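The protein record filed below.
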Amino acid sequence: MPVKEFDEILLLKKIQGLADEAEEKLIERWLSESEENMRTFTRMKSLWYALKVKGYSEDEALREPIADINARIDRLEAGRRRITGMRWLKIAAVVALLFGIGVVVMEVARFSKGPEMVLVENGINQGIKYIELPDGTKAWLNLGAKLSYPERFDAQERKVEIEGEVFLAVAKIKAKRFLAETPAFTVEVTGTSFNVNTNASGKVEVVLVEGAVNLLDNSGRKAGSLIPGQMAKAGPESDSIEISQVNTGFYTAWKEGLVMLENAGLNEIVKKIEEVYGVEIVIDSLKARKDDTRYNFVFKKSQRFDTVFEMLQFVAPSREMHVKEKSGK
């Protein structure tokens, strides 16, 4: 069915993310009928996105290409009822041509790959970052964490990618599953709260606070599941997922600005303090290596380093240690 026989209002609704499920199916069927239909739609989408760019030029060199694009829009409009959206496209054509044909090509390529992706990063020297996703899911990003998601979730599922440590309180939408992708496995939920922590080596830990989740392997098959109070642990090359019972508070306290270490060795505590305060703690490595003592250690990130260092000296009074700033700090 050519575009002149198709309701372009539906196309504009799809571009703006306003089409309902029935309209989405109708549009997808129309798009699959011919390459010309797809080209028409992607051109409309490209120009609509270009409208978001503020300001435009009346440079003489732009007049001819602008007139050409507007003429094509007029041909599309011929024989059909006139709608406000077509005027938007003419304005957008002016804006798009500020950047040349490359803008249209870029937007068409972006559409062919799926929705535009949003990347949220939290610097290592910033506080906890809080954001809300398009579906209402709440996310807290720890220092150095990254969260990637589409600016608009599709009708079947909600998918995000996680690097570093992120806590998610997933909005409950039963008909639309939520997928959190990590280097080792994918976490599948419909509505729940859980903590995901990945590191540079690809090791992944998922701690479930409430609800239930499935763990999917790279082929999408179910590899395990969690109930509240359990942690799943695996690496990118792991053949299996290790599941254990844990105190969830120790894995989610960072969201409230707390650092909690349970049954940790002295080296683990020192490493965490170094990470938070950007210092280097020099300790008698020989003695520390021989020490198998385990500790529970808790401190607030808002506390002065001097106070936390005194706490460390209190729990390990026999250790000789001193502090120096890391280079570049």
Q: What stands out?
A: The longest strand covers residues 157-163.
